[in-house]
Amino acid sequence: MIAKDLRKLCMSLPAATETIQWGDDRVFKIGGKMFACSGVEADSMFSFKVDADRFLELTDIAGTKPAPYLARAKWIQIDPAHCQLSDKDLENLVRNSYELVFGKLPKKTQKLLKAD
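The structure assignment produced for this chain is given below.
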């Protein structure tokens, strides 16, 4: 998976939005909260949140590492040129990131987003 595939996946998720922040980073959000980000180039590295109990396991895989500035919140960074995870695994992890962030939103916000 490369960043352009990440963008396509993220934008297919219900109520997901995309913004450009911090100069040239694509940030994907649900309910105003970030669940994934990447550079604007099609082959740039990208990051997303993972389950706390899988964080160390995932960062031991080639092509993944703790995401700069976000590792304490259990985010990993993917280098598509070297990542050993399959596209299907990455897709599942990004969907899980979306669900993790969605689950932390206030119940009222969750209800409004599901209504859209």
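Interim note for the steering committee: The CA atoms of residues 13 and 27 lie 14 Å apart. The longest helix spans residues 87-104.
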